[in-house]
Amino acid sequence: MVERAYVASVRAARHAELRARFKGVIESVVVDEGERVRAGQVLFTIAASARAQEAASARAAQLGAEAELRAAEQELENTKLLVEKQIVSEAELRRGLAKVDLQKARVEEAKAAVGRTKVELGRAQIRAPFDGVVDLIRHKTGAMIEDDALLTTVSDPREVVAYFAISEREYLEYARESERQTPVVQLALADGTMFPHEGAIDAVGGEIDTATGTLVYRARFPNPQGTLKHGSSGKVVLKTKVRGAVLVPQRSTFETQGNIYAYVVDTGNIARIRKLDVKHAHGDAFVIGGGLAPGERFVLEGIQQLKDGAAVEPLAPTTPAKLSAKG
Question: Which of 124-138, 176-190, 254-268 is predicted with the least confidence, judged by mean pLDDT?
Fold first, then answer.
């Protein structure tokens, strides 16, 4: 197994900011910080009394308009009878029909006003969007707040996501490997311990950041005990199997102009400089993708005193002179 760790930003899978929807006075705060709440539970009321009065007034206006409509309809029926008996003219009938149409329009207008006041009353009650935990409450009862003022946040701690960035080269490696294996995804916490639940990569960014040459990944972790909090930090650790890998201790290599080299020992015990294709670091060793084949010898210690073409004397077979591994 080869491990690679990436600095990660942990977020609750569901996290919402609760904000005021209009300017007004907070009439009640019916929740406490750190309290668990249920979806739809009222947390704050803002100027709700005035909104309730407006709603009652609009409802009364609707009832009045409906009563006037019924009166107009009854008057129209009476006019029809009088027209049939030729007591009043057709003009009276037309006026009666127009009056009924006018009252119907007033009823619809009153209904719309009732709907608007219901919406406003609903906006006066700030409810939990989902089951979760309330964070810091920014304003208390009696405070005058502006439109869009942040009241608090609610997080669902049962599941978290961790965002981390990998290089374009590593992305291509993972993309090729994904058809053969799924990496083991773990999370190292800020204190160095490992989170007990494994995660899974469930989303990959759509474009590479040209400034950093990285691509954002998202890993999802179950969090049944609520150990992880929104805003936690840590490192996502990806473990993958590497078949036929050659491991070279980093102390056996040197770097020049961004390239990694080692001294390879040929059959005549002559040390030759060779450029290595380093895939990535694994502990205190490099995983080599090319430049050194399994079974080839290289200088393990003392490379600082060597030059290309220098003769070396291999140690006895009981002393390891190279490090290679398959996993």
Answer: 176-190
